[in-house]
Amino acid sequence: MNQQQSLFDVEETIRNSKSQKASEILTPSTRKILQLLTNQGINKAVTASLLNLAGASPEIVQYVAGPIVTQQNGWQQLIPAWVGKAIAIDRLNAALEEIDKGEVGKLASSSEVLALMMPITYEVPLRAEWTDVFLWASYDALNRHKPFESYEYDKLWEKIGTTPIKYQKIKSDYEIVASDIRSYVIKHAAKEGWGKNSSSNNKRLIQETQTESTIQLEQLSLL
């Protein structure tokens, strides 16, 4: 499948469906193409522009378009490349699910919590509760995205070196961090003009179809 041609097919489909709801415009085939393009590393500005064209809520568009949030302490360069790709995939999947439900989510994904906390773990020891949050986020992101071939993901907790951590144990602390991340992402994207009911952002579709070569890193002090 040609990535460039597929993108224009999606854009044309959306432009010709203005009388429909976003959930109706984003048909199964259209969603599949968007997910395929995201897996291939398409620029998040393109995905956000397409969702904007489809009539998704401003907050959802902003969440998809916003920056990756991490701690700027010199260790952020050690975040594996697969994490950035996982974040893009998680945001799109969350956006599509929220469009179907007709509601806007409050939490960022486990891959985003991982991106925020990883540099901190290299700098200072975490308290026990935050260590559990970091380990659970790492487990969840790895287990869902499976970035390494021939890896025994069924033995992941054993390889991490701890007993399995249940979500209920870390739910309160995790959701504080995840909600702060998502709130920051949306606010930052809104300042850049994303989510407005205009075609200004959609003009980026042609110019920004190339794969992103770097990850935009922003600082958010939570811990």
Description:
Helices cover 60% and strands 2% of the residues. It is an all-alpha fold. The protein has one domain (3-212). Strands 1-2 form a two-stranded parallel sheet. Helix 4 (44-53) runs antiparallel to helix 5, helix 6 (81-101) runs antiparallel to helix 7 and helix 7 (110-123) crosses helix 10.
Widest beta sheet: strand line-up? 1-2
| Largest sheet entry | 2 strands, parallel
- The poorly predicted ranges are 204-223
User: What is the straight-line distance between the termini?
Assistant: 44 Å
Number of helices: 11
Report strand %. Answer: under 5%
> What is the ordering of alpha helices and beta strands?
HHHHHEHHHHHHE
User: Would you count the extended β strands for me?
Assistant: 2
Shape designation? globular
Helix content: 55-70%
How many structural domains?
1
Mean pLDDT value: 84
Q: How large is the radius of gyration? A: 18 Å
Structural class: mainly alpha
Brief synopsis:
The protein has helices at residues 3-15, 22-25, 28-39, 44-53, 58-65, 81-101, 110-123, 128-145, 156-160, 167-191, 204-207, and strands at 68-69, 217-218. It is an all-alpha fold and 223 residues long. The longest helix is centred in the C-terminal third of the chain and has 25 residues, at 167-191.
Layout of secondary structure:
Elements lengths: L2 H13 L6 H4 L2 H12 L4 H10 L4 H8 L2 E2 L11 H21 L8 H14 L4 H18 L10 H5 L6 H25 L12 H4 L9 E2 L5
Parallel strand pairs: 1-2
Helix pairs in contact: 1-3, 3-6, 4-5, 5-6, 5-10, 6-7, 7-8, 7-10, 8-10
